[in-house]
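Hey L., structure's done. Input below.
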Amino acid sequence: MLYAVIARPPIFGGKVLSYDAKDALKVQGVIEVIELKGSPPPANFNPLGGIAVIANNTWAAIQGRKALKIEWDKGPHGTYDSLTYKTELEAAARKPVKWFATMGR
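Output:
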């Protein structure tokens, strides 16, 4: 039986620009390193892509993943800032609203 550990993009919508598996393959027990292609947006429940390290045991797979050198394309959400988003939501919540109601047409 083999084991795999996957390095996923750090940001939703990101993808692999490049990677170097040389050091990962030096870890005793690591058999292979494979790039997994992601699904086009919207990904929802589809694979997000990444780099899989396949090994004889979980320890080797984890150590191999740590040894990977990956350059990520952060994608459309690379500049996302949760504090800015929170401020925008708070400002929108404070704006006056118009109420519309239709009853018994």
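The chain has a mean pLDDT of 89. The longest strand covers residues 30-36.

-- N.
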